Amino acid sequence: MAKGDQAISSEQLEKTADPKRILLAINPNAAFAKKDKATRGSRAAETLRSIGHEVEELVEASYIRLEEAISRKLPDADVLVVAGGDGMMHLGVNRAIAAAKPLGLIPAGTGNDASRILEISQDPVVASLQIDNALRNGSRLVDTLRITGEGFERYAFGMLSAGFDALVNERANIMHSPKGPSRYTLAMLAELAQLKPRKYKFTVDGETRETDAILIAVSNNQFCGGGMRFVPHAQVDDGQIEVFVLKPLGRAKFLSIFPKVFSGRHVEHADLVEFFRGTEVSVEASDIVGYADGERLDSLPLTVKVMPSSLEMLV
Is 75 exposed, middle or buried (0-12, 13-18, 19+ CB in 10 A)? Predict the structure, then answer.
């Protein structure tokens, strides 16, 4: 359970006086789907209906078809709720911003980093009650990242990965097992065999720097990869974005530091990690495809601009 779950009272199970039309999009390929397809999404739908909301469940065979269906149906709904992991959160952010609708999340993925920072319960019933509570008592405005390239634009909630972390995402997304955060750990260990620094040029609020680095990440969320605290001081509602630079290092040093990333103690290695803060960041490097919220985007260079209070989250 996330912090605050105990504060949910029995009063929230009573019928709402202000029912909403909720479009609940369920990812059939999320981590839960293999064992019991759409169970968490369906449980969330049942809970929201029992409170009095009108819920339309939306399931499609592919991510692309699901996004197209959301685009068609969302204008007639009051609220978008997505059931899945950080990839579904990414889809939800883009559709909710485009339609100017509030967004709710039922965690049902592998990493669940968005739900971690937003303190959303992993229990679909409790998460549904958190959504209803926000509809009754007020939601939360959070920042998003607008990522642009050549003929490309996408919004993200968590982090743009642009280096070793993107390569790990690439590998993890094609792995069928194991499930859960350990998949990212194994993908990272596999990529270590090819660990090497790249030449980067990055610009933060007009100030350009060039450096060799293992990775550069541009972040709105402190978590990535299933609980790794890449940027432990990042906040999702401060109107700022954080740039994390990991300087060149060998495999042995990497392995000695890596366990600390889950607690955020890797920041103690000031000789190897560097942080910058701003509102607009561009990143250039060769042979790197950027990832955001675990979703494949486009090749660098990419530009990231913070969009303060641009998303209404039902938390």
Answer: exposed
* pLDDT tens digits for range 197-243: 999 999 999 999 999 999 999 999 999 888 999 999 999 999 999 99
pLDDT of residue 184: 74
Q: Looking at the chain, which runs of residues are DSSP E strands? A: 21-26, 54-59, 79-84, 103-107, 140-149, 152-156, 159-161, 198-204, 207-213, 215-219, 241-246, 273-278, 280-284, 289-292, 295-299, 302-313
Is 42 in a helix, a strand, or coil?
A: helix
Q: At what angle do helices 63-73 and 86-99 cross, to 10 degrees?
A: 30
| 8 Å CB contact between 26 and 57 | yes
Could you tell me where the DSSP H helices lie in 27-112? 39-51, 63-73, 86-99
**How are the residues of the chain apportioned to helix, strand and coil, as percentages rounded to the nearest 5?**
35, 30, 35
What pLDDT does 31 receive?
47
Q: Which of 99, 74, 68 lies closest to 20, judged by CA?
A: 74
- Which range has the worst mean pLDDT, 17-21, 22-26, 60-64, 99-103? 60-64
The encoded tokens of residue 58 equal 């939306």
Please give the distance of CA 140 from its chain centroid, rounded to a whole number: 16
